[in-house]
Design goal:
It is a single chain. By secondary structure, the protein is α+β, with helices and mostly antiparallel strands. It contains seven helices and seven strands; from the N terminus they run αααααβββαββββα. A seven-stranded antiparallel β-sheet has the order 1-2-3-7-6-5-4, with helices on both faces. A hairpin with a 6-residue loop joins β4 and β5. The protein is globular.
Length: 184
């Protein structure tokens, strides 16, 4: 008597086969032609990059690790916002100074690295009006409540939240960004 498999059994069999093939592919180094006797063992390219990073690769993380709270002090954030703010709350790529719970509504946020660049890219995609700012880093743009700049390959954004006319903060934002750019 011949036994046929049901669809669920075939699906389980197919998934098992895929899992086994995946495990085999990830289980160890690739095999290739044998190395001559006495030759050092072959090393994967990823191991070489970890074992011997280039000067450029080691320099980049130090820039990316710029402390956002060191770019804009609490006093500078308060001057921009025009009100008292709480101490900065640091995160790996941002620093946030918030207004007191008693008001007025105010917040200054500083972002450093890829996140700052991504904010600019999103605003561009959304069609926000971005005005270039001359004399600020390698490249800089301002819009209502935001200023973005690139200094030596490090992107920084400063965001101000206030409930009044954002136009009155344009010049102070540029001044603060120029100061912050000297610290990148």
């Amino acid at each position: 008597m011949r036994r046929t498999r049901t669809r669920p059994q075939l699906a389980v069999l197919a998934l098992t086969l895929v899992a086994l093939v995946g495990l085999a592919a990830c289980s160890g180094p690739e095999t290739g032609p044998a190395a001559p006797a006495g030759a050092p063992p072959a090393t994967a390219a990823s191991e070489v990059a970890v074992a011997a990073p280039t000067e450029q690769a080691t320099a980049a993380p130090s820039r990316a690790m710029t402390d956002p709270c060191s770019l804009v002090s609490k006093q500078e954030a308060e001057k921009l916002a025009g009100t008292a703010l709480q101490d900065g709350v640091a995160a790996p790529a941002s620093c946030t100074y918030t207004g007191p719970t008693t008001g007025p509504t105010a917040q200054v946020e500083v972002y450093v690295g890829d996140g700052a660049k991504k904010q600019l890219d999103i605003d561009r995609q959304l069609g926000h009006k971005l005005d270039p700012v001359s004399g600020l880093g390698d490249e800089a743009f301002i819009e209502d409540g935001w200023i973005f700049f690139n200094n030596s390959g490090v992107w920084v954004s400063i965001h101000l939240v206030r409930l009044d006319d954002p136009a009155k903060y344009g010049k102070p934002m540029q001044e603060l960004a120029r100061t912050a750019a000297t610290r990148v």
